[in-house]
C-alpha cells in the first residue's frame, strides 16, 4: 500500500483457520460460470453477476471461474444487499462495488480469486512493483462507495489482498489501467460513512489485509469504522507471494486526505507490514483524527516494511511520493491528531513506532516487547 515496500525473501509460514460462524451455500453447488458479462462499467473486465438497484443476492454459490469479477455493483446501483454468498474463482475481484452507496456485504465467503491480476507481461505498478494491469484488486473492493457495510465475511486464499475501501475518479483503481478504461476527466468520487466490521482475513497474497486509502489526487475518505476484524498473516509462499496482512489507513496521492477513522478492536498478527499503519504519503496529503484503540497486535512488520524492526502500530509520513521531493510552496504530508490508546501489543520490537512532524497521542497501552525492544519510539 505504501510506496517503499522492501522485497521479502524469507521462508513460508504455514497455518490453517477453520470456517466458523458463517452460513453460506456450499461451493460444490455451483458449476463454473459459462456466461460472463463483458466490460462491466467500462472497466475492461467481465463479471459473473451484475447487480441492479435494490437487489438482494443471498444464499447462493457463485463460481466465477472464467470471469474477472464475481459480483459487480456499478455506478449508481444502490441499496444492494449481498448476504450468505460464496464467491470463488474470480480472476480479479470477488466482489467489486464502485461509485455508489448503501451497499451491504455480509456473512459471505470470498476465496480462490484474484490470481489473474498478477501478470508478468504488465509493467510494474508504482509503489509496490507488482506486475498488473489494474492498480488495486481486493477480494472485496469498495471504490468510491459510501454509507455501506462489510460485515462478518471470511476472505482467504486470494491473490491480491483482502478488503479495500478507496476513492474513485480520474484514476479508477479497479479498472484496467489503460485507455479507454480510464477517464482522465472523471469527477472525484469520495468514500464516507463506511463500516468494515467483524471480518476474518488470511492468506490474501500480494496485498494488504484491510486498507482504507486514497488513490486520486485530491481524493478523500472520511467517517470510517474499521472494527473487530481479524487479520492473520500466513507468511511467504514461494509460489503465491507474500501474505502482507496489516490494517492500513493512508492518504496516498498528493492533495488527498483520510479523516475521522476509528480503528478499534481488531486483531492483527504476523503481518509483513505493521499491524496498524497510519500514513500520509505525498505533498499536501494528510490523515486527521484517526483513533487506534483496543486492538490486539502481535508479531507484525516482520518484513521491516515501514519501521526498521517488528512493530505493532506504525505512524509515519513519507514526503518522497513516487521518489519526488515536496514541490516549492507545497506542504509536507502530515498525520494530524492520531490517537493510540488501550491497545494490547506483544512480540514486537517496537510496540509503537512513529515519525513525522506531529507525534501521535499515546496513552494507556499494554506493550510487551522482544529482547532489546522499545515500547514506544517517536522520532
Automatic annotation (TrEMBL):
- Protein name per UniProt: Right-handed parallel beta-helix repeat-containing protein
Task: Note the coiled coil stretches, chain numbering.
Answer: none
Q: Signal as a keyword?
A: yes
In which domain of life is the source organism classified? Bacteria
Q: Which UniProt keywords apply?
A: Signal
Give the signal sequence positions.
Answer: 1-30
Q: Which residues belong to any copy of the Right handed beta helix domain? A: 65-169
Q: State the InterPro entries in the record.
A: Beta_helix (IPR039448), PbH1 (IPR006626), Pectin_lyas_fold (IPR012334), Pectin_lyase_fold/virulence (IPR011050)
Query: What species was this sequence derived from?
Result: Leekyejoonella antrihumi
